[in-house]
Amino acid sequence: MEAALLERLETAVARLEAAVASGASLASAAPRDLDLPAAADPAIVAYEEFIAEAVGRLNIAAEKIGGKVLDATKVLAEAFAVSKDLLVQAKQLQKPASMADAQGFLKPLGDCIAKATAMTEGRRPDYFNHLKSVADSLPALAWVAFLGKDCGMSFPTAHVEESWQMAEFYNNKVLVEYRNKDPDHVEWAKALKDLYMPGLRDFVKKHYALGPVWGPSGGAAASQPKAAAPTPKAPATKAPPPPAPPSAPLFTTEKSPKSSQPKQGMSAVFQEISSKPVTAGLRKVTDDMKTKNRADRSGVVASTAAAPATPEKTSRAGSFSFKSGPPKLELQMGRKWVVENQVGKKTLAIDDCDSRQSIYVYGCKDSVLQVNGKVNNITVDKCTKFGIVFKDVVAAFEVVNCNGVEVQCQGTAPTISIDNTSGCQLYLSKESLGASITSAKSSEINVMVPSGATDGVL
């Protein structure tokens, strides 16, 4: 790396010396890529080495998994490359005066974050926790937008730590789900955490604790690219200046006309009161104008209004809505039970299941599902007033984006996760008391355990 940079510097110096010797100007002799001093900055070189090592390790782990995990990891690598380019550009641009002025400068990074967020939207995709970990971690790269202590965001090191806390919740879910199943997923989750904590945090603390380094104050603005020098034109003949307006005399004996502007303040109020009688403008109310004497005002509301159009069926659970589709209860590809859009069904049951299968419940309302067997994991998503009874899960039981759900575990569950849910009643058996329960952005959660006096009685 150092040898390559040294060679590029020597080449640039040789071209400059040759241009000076031939009498050419420095502006014409300089190569077009004289961004070299910015790219050769020790901090930026260190950032390139950090990205190559940390993101490279994450990419190797993602290639073993493939699919959407690899796609999300490529978006992450693109975002880190964009952040490096922004540091190089910042050294050549004038520091923005405010965050609004820096919007154009930060747009490429914002596009990468939006691309990662779009991968998590819609119906819950496969490897949702992986995708969510990536999408929630990328805002940490916005530390390059730090413009000072009064810009409205935390200092760069603190910003990286705060941003990782949002992604760590889903990253821990990956670790819990795959710790005894697939070491490739575990390695990916550990590499993602090391990328930010301590990787990016320590780098920013060492090289950019006070934010990026900006160019001189006379450079181009960060919100717009450098403009090319305008082509000189022949001087145009100046037009004669317009004649000066006639000067008004300082004093005049004529009376000035009344001002068209109304008086303001309390003087206008008193003038209005004194100039008009108190009852001016009021109308006399006769007997036939009174409501009690009018035949067309009976006080009865007519029911002639047209019935409102039937709205699209939606279910509210917290702050989200979903479209109601056809009901489903089926086993897909022999590995995943899908229970969708069940409304008012109290006798739903899954009997023929095994520990390699998973269950995904989506968009159910006023229904109860009973799982008679051991499964790998269960996810309840966007359900309202829904009850579920299950025996054993190998990995985890999750409740996401729900409202008013009741969950009863009759066997064992190593992990129970409740996310973005309002109103959850959780009943644990004696065997599941050792379960790890995590919650985020949820309210009204009650956990019932067996009493010590009578075995199995809540």
TrEMBL record:
Ranges of Low complexity composition bias in the record: 219-237, 298-311
Gene3D superfamilies for the chain: 2.160.20.70, Adenylate cyclase-associated CAP, N-terminal domain
SMART domains to which the protein is assigned, alphabetical: CARP (SM00673)
Region (Disordered) residue spans: 217-267, 281-325
Residue ranges, compositional bias (Pro residues): 238-248
Highest rank taxon of the organism: Eukaryota
Every C-CAP/cofactor C-like domain range: 326-458
InterPro entries: Adenylate_cyclase-assoc_CAP (IPR001837), Adenylate_cyclase-assoc_CAP_C (IPR013912), Adenylate_cyclase-assoc_CAP_N (IPR013992), C-CAP_CF_C-like (IPR017901), CAP/MinC_C (IPR016098), CAP_C_sf (IPR036223), CAP_CS_N (IPR018106), CAP_N (IPR053950)
Pfam family, any one: CAP_N
Stretches with biased composition (Basic and acidic residues): 284-297
PANTHER family: ADENYLYL CYCLASE-ASSOCIATED PROTEIN
Family assignment from sequence similarity: Belongs to the CAP family.
Protein name per the record: Adenylyl cyclase-associated protein
Organism field: Urochloa decumbens
